[in-house]
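Inverse folding, one chain.
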């Protein structure tokens, strides 16, 4: 009996140690949750408009796509850097003076029977389709097309993001974390029965409360994220500050948000144009 009491007390102590910080964080985060909105819920802040061009995922371009293999090898020998390490989701067409992104979408491809014994038990297979969106620096869509471009023969230039898909420790003063709200703890692979995915290190699922510093003020919003401990916060963002010579002198920031860490919550996924009024 004493042994059982000891075991139960030990388990309760472990659970308390694990959950107590999360409980404190949860109640302390309520004011943040009321104050902050998701980016897709914000249409403007003082001095700026926010336009959501798409809620779909974007294709990622490597700089090496724009050069031949021989040119890429020459670049590597000269610099010691692979061009494939330089990546972006935004292209600029110098002649037209417009920006381009390539969206990815999953659509139903064909139906097939789930149960071979039932004629009406069908489900759909998915396929990925691509679409180019051409837009101006004000966030206005100019064209949409499913054409495939030969990037080596195109006039596209890659717009390199200063802060690509990163963890919070890579952020600059332009984009930073104000608070992280812990919502659900996921156990590690050592306790797979407690981990819905069955693998991965222990983590907190929650919300990151972010600030983007702009010249006329600040944009604050919340985003789904994970906390792996020791200030190791993970989420998907690519952040682009467009040079003023390409924007008619206006301040323009582009933000691409994925929701790969958010399971089925894809509400804020998409590509946004933040433009000075």
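Residues assigned per position:
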């Amino acid at each position: 009996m004493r042994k059982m009491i000891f075991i139960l007390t030990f388990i309760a102590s472990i659970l308390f140690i694990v959950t107590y910080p999360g409980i404190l964080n949860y109640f302390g985060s309520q004011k943040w949750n009321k104050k902050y909105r998701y980016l897709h819920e914000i249409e403007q802040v003082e001095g700026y408009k926010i336009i959501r061009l798409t809620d779909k995922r974007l294709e990622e371009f490597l700089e090496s796509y724009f050069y031949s293999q021989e040119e890429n090898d020459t670049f590597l020998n000269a610099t010691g850097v692979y061009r494939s390490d330089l990546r972006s989701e935004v292209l600029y067409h110098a002649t037209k003076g417009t920006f381009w992104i390539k969206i990815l979408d999953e659509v139903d491809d064909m139906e097939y029977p789930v149960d071979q014994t039932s004629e009406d038990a069908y489900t759909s297979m998915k396929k990925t389709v691509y679409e180019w969106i051409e837009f101006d620096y004000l966030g206005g869509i100019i064209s949409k097309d499913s054409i495939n471009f030969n990037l080596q023969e195109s006039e596209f230039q890659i717009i390199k993001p200063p802060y690509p898909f990163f963890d919070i420790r890579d952020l600059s003063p332009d984009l930073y974390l104000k608070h992280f709200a812990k919502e659900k703890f996921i156990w590690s692979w050592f306790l797979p029965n407690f981990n819905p995915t069955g693998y991965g290190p222990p983590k907190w699922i929650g919300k990151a409360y972010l600030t983007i510093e702009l010249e006329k003020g600040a944009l604050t919003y919340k985003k789904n994220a994970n906390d792996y401990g020791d200030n190791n916060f993970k989420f998907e963002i690519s952040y682009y500050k467009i040079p003023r010579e390409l924007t008619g002198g206006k301040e323009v920031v582009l933000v691409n948000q994925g929701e790969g860490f958010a399971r089925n919550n894809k509400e804020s996924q998409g590509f946004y144009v933040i433009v000075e009024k």
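The chain has a mean pLDDT of 79. The longest helix spans residues 2-28.
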